[in-house]
Design brief:
The complex is a heterotrimer of chains A (183), B (336) and C (449).
Chain A: E1 2-7, H1 9-26, E2 33-38, H2 42-57, E3 63-66, E4 97-105, H3 109-121, E5 126-134, E6 146-150, E7 158-162, H4 164-167, E8 171-176
Parallel strand pairs in A: 2-3, 2-4, 4-5, 5-6
Antiparallel strand pairs in A: 1-8, 7-8
Helix pairs in contact in A: 1-2
Chain B: H1 37-55, E1 68-73, H2 79-90, E2 94-99, H3 111-120, E3 125-130, H4 135-142, E4 146-152, H5 158-172, E5 179-183, H6 190-201, E6 205-209, H7 219-225, E7 231-234, H8 237-241, E8 246-249, H9 254-258, H10 265-272, H11 276-279, E9 287-288, H12 302-305, H13 312-332
Helix pairs in contact in B: 1-5, 1-13, 2-13, 5-6, 5-13
Chain C: E1 3-13, E2 18-27, E3 30-36, E4 46-49, E5 54-57, E6 59-64, H1 77-86, E7 89-94, H2 105-118, E8 122-127, H3 141-146, E9 151-153, H4 162-172, E10 179-181, H5 186-189, E11 194-195, H6 198-203, E12 207-208, H7 210-227, E13 231-233, H8 239-250, E14 255-259, H9 261-265, H10 297-308, E15 314-315, H11 324-327, H12 344-353, H13 359-366, H14 368-374, E16 392-402, E17 421-431, E18 434-438, E19 444-446
Helix pairs in contact in C: 4-7, 7-8, 8-10, 13-14
The chains are: A alpha/beta (183), B alpha/beta (336), C alpha/beta (449).
């Protein structure tokens, strides 16, 4: 298996800054925005976006975290690590623009679950989606509003996002399986 | 409304909860004697997430949608059954309650036949309470559905011990080296036995206290044989309760006096009741717990039951969150 | 003339101090002749080649439950005696806890009659001590002794009243027939379901303390001393009991005792499953539920020592078959008992292979010693002396086999040895000159030798 770096820390920083600007532009300002990071790596990404927005607009943006474990549609295949973190959104979400923040956008099932979770917590005005990497292969009719980078992949490949807060470094890599016949 | 995080510089992982590396190995939850510390901590962490759900206005998540959870209680119970039922409903499971005191059991149907019928009806998880120790073990051996033990005879009550541990954890931040004293009829107490396993796994010092006739014969040999070096036995309440961080009196059933194990309830109260003066021997601010239902005036004085040190009602609330965590883990977890 | 020749076997007969390779001939249901292996042999219709096998007198089981009349779903005299034959037993003494109990001539005659037509081995009935086994009134002991009961016992139950036990012992002294007691003080055992100890504390089960047995062993021995009766203690299970019996023997009191194979091999930990420290899923194993219960390693050590120094005279199976329904349930309500006839020998050979007892001692505990307790009225059993009934057992001490209760002849599949590999297999069992069991691997030659 070969792991190749696609995005450097600088690439990531620029992408997030651009997304922050796009969020501000789309929503005509930073008021009424709540950033909700998806466990696990979406959470620090959401915090960084909030920090950028605050820098540009001089306005604090509430940030929360969301664990979709309780909303999955594939419970019989629990991950190796079945830990569930509490969902923690510090403000009332009704009538707000919720921007879900995730590291990799793939089949869309996690986002479907996230939307169900958000709806259980209140009645937002809009739900928007910001992702660092979109690797394609959607299985549901869901799209992202803000994309850091489009990286077309095949199903056998894996995209790995590293964020400093969790992994000690920032980078995005692609892992390709060995060619047939290789040991 | 809380202010947004002020971080501009990304920090390393101490800003996020640690990733748990525990694998969940249990198809059934029969007792805590085969739970590792990591597994207990996993349950506590997930219970926190469930507690958040219970704070919402709509206390419901779709996690167990389409699953059927059947409670089968051969012994009467109000709080435990309601607690499990609410836990299952909060996770959107379909629930069925069987009161085995009034069903085919009285027609002489065997336990296994009853269980097979319930499984054939589509039960995914069976929550069992039974008056005979070991009953859920037969169930677990011969039935495919997951069995959660809600109390078997004198033997085990794992969800109760887990909610006890969760409650202590929330107040004291952990159980390591804490002194927990359990007082009363240890012989017949499934709560005591499960707590012996669970609390010592979490590093606590557990003291079991009661009159000699209510301490199971073989208790000391059991502690030695199973290497439960943090567990000790005491017949004198003053020594047992001294500097304790947690005081847990057990319900004393009136039948114990009737069967000759005690000369009188009066003498038990004089020697072992947890009242104000006795409680003051414990550490200041020590938690007072009770598995319920209480016999106020017997094992616990009304004043202590209602004191600020009592977390007894909180145990009940925590019970729903802990049971939701167990249902989630059992419903999803096959071993990897 | 029907003659069977057993050639070239290793003959072990402690009653004659015999331990040598030799030949043996059977004629008309009796041992005709035995001698060292030589070429000049009489003609025989049937020849068994016993090379590599051990040949002993047929095993005698002083204690088993055949369940008929009354509990034929658990066992019948036919199935139980076939199981006995497969286990190498040529004589079984059946306990009276049937329904109706064997407390009268009618029921004893019934058992004798069924045994004579359907039994595969010799069946000697044991009558109860009290009517209905209720522990209150004595049965008509003289009539029953004349009808051929080999002993009196309320087994399953103790005789709780010391007064009644004393009277029973006194009354029986003239009959030359032993009183067998199931020693259990019910006040102490009180609904217990396993040994009282660390396992019962852990599993939350009520225990039966060793004292429950020892208290009654001591009582019975004092009463035997007082009355001069012959007392036999059934299924001894504790160190304390062994010590009390040893002390009584030193004083010359006429007490004998038996032990079961499962009490020699298993401990209370077996209730937690067949593998030590295994998955807790296998706790509460009812195949290990028996009365008296499986005790501790210290007790098994004392029992083995008791066998070696002759404090314990005999090994008896206490074969207790039960239906699946009675065992596949909650531990507290499961029936007590192990179906032991077909595994007894293989289990006991584990002790021989582990060098805990020697083979000759084992054979004597299964043959001449129990024969002494029964006495001569039923023929001279437990011996290969010429002229005695040809009750003979052949076994391969090293042959390995796996315990599979589905292949048992007994209806009782309740065994804690399920799936275990044992080393030592009965190859043939002969009762009064008739081959009642033969392992397929042992070939018979019929026709002129």
């Amino acid at each position: 298996m070969a792991e190749r770096t696609l995005l450097s820390p600088e690439d990531i920083r620029r992408a997030l800054v651009r997304i922050a600007h796009e969020i501000i532009e789309r929503n005509k300002g930073a008021g009424d925005i709540v950033l909700v990071g998806m466990q696990t790596r979406g959470v620090p990404l959401a915090k960084r976006l909030a920090a950028s927005i605050q820098e540009f607009e001089d306005l604090p943006v509430p940030t929360g975290s969301l664990d979709i474990s309780l909303y999955r549609d594939d419970l019989s295949r629990l991950p190796l690590k079945p830990l569930v973190h509490p969902t923690d959104i510090p403000v009332d979400i009704t009538d707000k623009h919720i921007v879900l923040v995730d590291d990799v956008f793939y089949t869309g099932r996690s986002i479907r679950a996230a939307m169900d979770a958000i709806m259980d917590l209140g009645r937002p005005r809009t739900i928007q989606l910001a992702v660092l990497v979109d690797r394609g292969h959607r299985e549901l009719p869901i799209r992202a509003d803000y994309v850091g980078k489009n990286i077309p992949t095949s199903r056998s490949e894996e995209i790995k996002v590293y964020v400093t807060e969790v992994d000690g470094e920032d980078k995005v890599t692609i892992i390709t399986p060995d060619k047939e016949g290789a040991t | 409304m809380r202010p947004a995080e002020q971080t501009i510089q990304p920090k390393t992982s101490d800003t996020l909860p640690p990733l748990s590396t525990a694998l969940w190995r249990h198809h059934h939850v029969l007792d805590l004697d085969d739970f590792s510390r990591e597994e207990i901590e996993l349950v506590l962490d997930i219970a926190d997430a469930m507690a958040e759900v219970l704070q919402r206005e709509v206390k419901r998540v779709p996690t167990l949608r389409g699953r059927t959870v059947v409670t089968m209680f051969y012994e009467p119970s109000t709080r435990t059954r309601a607690s499990f039922e609410l836990a299952a409903k909060n996770l959107s499971a379909d629930t069925v309650n069987l009161d085995a005191t009034r069903s085919s059991v009285t027609k002489g149907e065997s336990l296994l036949d009853t269980l097979r019928t319930i499984q054939a009806l589509g039960a995914d998880i069976i929550i069992m309470r039974h008056h005979h120790s070991g009953a859920p073990y037969i169930a677990a051996r011969y039935i495919n559905a997951s069995i959660i033990n809600a109390g078997d005879g004198w033997h085990a009550h794992p969800s109760q011990a887990l909610l006890d541990i969760y409650t202590i954890h929330k107040h004291l931040g952990g159980l390591t080296d804490r002194k927990i004293v359990i007082i009363g009829d240890i012989t017949h107490s499934r709560v005591a036995r499960s707590n012996i396993w669970g609390m010592s796994t979490m590093g606590a010092k557990v003291v079991l206290c009661g009159p000699p006739t209510l301490l199971p014969p073989g208790l000391k040999e059991f502690i030695v044989h199973c290497r439960l070096s943090q567990v000790s036995v005491e017949t004198e309440i003053e020594a047992a309760i001294k500097d304790a961080d947690v005081v847990m009196p057990l319900r004393l059933q009136v039948e114990r006096q009737q069967s000759g194990l005690l000369p009188s309830l009066r003498e038990y109260v004089q020697l072992y009741q947890i009242n104000g003066p006795r409680l003051s021997l414990a550490r200041p601010g020590a938690l007072v717990m009770h598995p319920g239902p209480m016999n106020e005036g017997i094992e616990i004085s009304p004043e202590v039951a209602r004191s600020t040190q009592s977390v007894i009602e909180e145990q009940v609330t925590n019970g729903v969150a802990v049971r939701m965590a167990l249902l989630y883990l059992v419903a999803g977890g096959k071993s990897s | 003339m029907t003659r069977i020749l057993i050639r070239g076997g290793h003959i072990i007969d402690p009653s004659q101090n015999l331990d040598a390779i030799g030949d043996l001939s059977i004629k008309d249901g009796k041992v005709e002749w035995l001698g060292t292996h030589n070429a000049a042999l009489p003609e025989a219709e049937t020849v068994l080649n016993a090379a590599g096998l051990i040949v002993t007198p047929g095993f005698i089981d002083l204690h088993c439950h055949l369940r008929q009349p009354g509990f034929e779903d658990a066992e019948t005299i036919a199935t139980g005696t076939l199981a006995a034959a497969r286990g190498g037993f040529t004589t079984v003494c059946c306990m009276p806890n049937t329904q109706p109990p064997l407390d009268s001539l009618a029921s004893v005659d019934y058992v004798k009659q069924v045994a004579s037509t359907e039994g595969y081995v010799r069946v000697l009935p044991i009558a109860s001590i009290t009517r209905g086994r209720k522990g209150l009134e004595l049965v008509e002991m003289d009539e029953l002794a004349k009808a051929g009961v080999v002993a009196f016992s309320d087994d399953g139950e103790p005789v709780s009243s010391s007064r009644v036990m004393r009277l029973a012992m006194e009354y029986a002294t003239r009959l030359g027939v032993p009183i067998i007691d199931h020693c259990e003080d019910k006040g102490l055992s009180q609904d217990g379901v396993m040994n009282e100890g660390w396992v019962s504390a852990r599993l939350g089960l009520r225990g039966i303390p060793a004292a429950a047995e020892e208290v009654m062993v001591a009582r019975d021995i004092r009463l035997a001393e007082l009355t001069g009766a012959r007392l036999h203690i059934a299924h001894v299970s504790t160190r304390g009991s062994v010590e009390i019996i040893r002390h009584a023997r030193e004083k010359g009191i006429a007490v004998t005792a038996e032990v079961t194979p499962h009490h020699l091999l298993l401990t209370e930990e077996r209730v937690m499953g067949s593998e030590p420290g295994n998955n807790t899923l296998f706790h509460y194993d009812t195949s290990a539920k028996v009365n008296p219960p499986l005790r501790t390693r210290d007790d098994t050590t004392a029992l083995i020592k008791g066998i070696k120094d002759s404090t314990i005279d005999a090994i008896a199976t206490d074969h207790a078959p039960h239906t699946l329904v009675d065992k596949l349930c909650e531990f507290n309500i499961a029936a007590f008992g192990i179906s032991g006839l077909e595994t007894a020998f293989g289990c006991l050979m584990l002790l021989v292979h582990n060098k805990e007892i020697d083979l000759i001692t084992l054979v004597s505990l299964l043959t001449c010693k129990p024969a002494k307790i029964i006495g001569n009225k039923f023929g001279e059993l437990g011996t290969l002396r010429p002229g005695c009934p040809a009750d003979i057992t052949l076994f391969d001490p090293d042959r390995e086999w796996v315990v599979d209760s589905r292949t048992f002849a007994s209806k009782g599949k309740n065994t804690p040895f399920e799936g275990q590999t044992l080393k030592g297999k009965i190859m043939a069992t002969i009762v009064q000159g008739k081959i009642v069991y033969r392992d397929a691997a042992l070939k018979l030659k019929t026709g002129k030798a």
